[in-house]
Amino acid sequence: xxxxxxxxxxxxTVYLLPTxxxxxxxxxxxxxxxxxxxxxxxxxxxxxxxxVGLENYITIFTDSVNRKVLLNTVFYIVLxxxxxxxxxxxxxxxxxxxxxxxxxxxxVIFFIPSIxxxxxxxxxFSWIMNPxxxxxxxxxxxxxxxxxxxxxxxxxxxxxxxxITNWKVFxxxxxxxxxxxxxxxxxxxxxxxIDRIPKWRVIWNIVLPLNKSIALYVLILTIVQxxxxxxxPISVITQGGPYxxxxxxxxxxxxxxxxLYKTGNASALAMLTFIIFLVLLYAEMKFVEGxxxxxx
Amino acid sequence: MPKSKISAWHLLLxxxxxxxxxxxxxxxxxxxxxxxxSYHSMLQxxxxxxxxxxxQTLAKQVHLLTIIWNTFFMATLVTLGKIxxxxxxxxxxxxxSFTGKKWLYLIFxxxxxxxxxxxxxxxxxxxxxxxxxxxxxxxxxxxxxDATGIMLFLSAMDKIPVSLTETLQVDRxxxxxxxxxxxxxxxxxxxxxxxxxxxINSWNEYVWPTLILxxxxxxxxxxxxxxxxxxxxxxxxxxxxxxxxxTIMVPLLIYLVFQRxxxxxxxxxxxx
Lengths: 296, 272
Hints:
Distance between the termini of chain A: 26 Å
Number of strands of chain B: 0
Structural class of chain A: mainly alpha
Distance between the termini of chain B: 33 Å
Shape of chain A: globular
Order of helices and strands of chain A: HEEHHHHHHHHHHHH
Largest sheet of chain A: 2 strands, antiparallel
Oligomer: heterodimer
Strand order of the largest sheet of chain A: 1-2
CATH superfamily of the largest domain in chain B: MetI-like
């Protein structure tokens, strides 16, 4: 019996080893090393690193560019929540409860853009929104309007960058939310029909609370994944410009590390992002019952 | 509910479908027009004169086949790597009990919440130290540090009846045989769809290629496409659209073939 136990232990180790090794080398150690780098002044190449204590962290909140980037990040989060969470949630409710049958085709169609590269999305939107020759500008010209040069305005650029990720993420989040809605027991909804309770009240008082856990999951995914998704269009279209106007914390981290070669600043920004994401993870595990306890 | 109201909702949903898909349709159609034609008849879906000139120009400017092969090879490496590591760990989690399981699971779940910025500098340094810059392996390795596969495979294994796996244990079937001959055949649809999702995501990957691939001959499709987009407005759109069309073809084909499996896997990933 003891021998068998030993064998099982060995087996588990063998099965887990590849994943654990990769996560250790390319995730755990890098996180620790980034944390270490955040206390130093270094340019990625020089043989020596200068210890600067908490200076890199202080700079995040005192430097005007960093503050601008943090503010932009908040703006990104608000827009991402509206476009990539509330909008698909609304549409998922419509599809589940207001149109009778025919859910399948919408699921299949809405999901299509999520299989395409964000670089393709960036190209498409910079074509559609091209202020001189783009289709939208031409249509607007016909009715006497002109499309502003949005790449010159940080705020407008952020809106369009969020629209690009919305094009990609909408269907994905829609499918997740629709699945959650579909799991709500049908007899519960049918009962409200007999009692003639208005539909919007049923949604508000029964459907939304019952779908809370998957909705929260998608909400947090929208922030965590969304902030990483906008990196691509920022990098392809604006490079964070005009004057950091469309940059966010992740792009600014990349810029600091690989363009300005300030790994200390970059690492401090990265650690801040990581802490924010960990708080979100904690919120998810706290409020989404059962999700993390399945195998634990 | 009144019929008219239902039709109004359908109208809205169809409008939404058009907004999501029309740009792609215009992209494909404009890639078969000359630069002039695309200016004058931008919104004409069927080109009046179909031309391959954009594709020919592309072929002259970049090594199209090399770039397609790079993308394919990198995506294949990532897909195989993630399937193998994911299957093995999910199996260990599902059918073995061991000390530290709870903690390991927590660590696996949290990897989804690690922003790429917090690992990009050390990973870049490691990849350059082991001389894998500008190689498919160099781009693939950091992408493997992702535990979503384990979650997806676990939810697939949840559907296997417990009675079956109990029988395997009673009959003392060796673990590797149980995995290969019983579990894997049962969850084959999930393996295919999860593999398809991995492949598509990796095909479209932008961050790691940007960091690791500097030499033009090692570029993947999204990187090559980026060079055809300029924020100064000087983009030759039919040309960029031709390269975009090439970029979307493989994911689109995979989606059309495995669409039902893929949607099922995505759906079950959220339901836990």
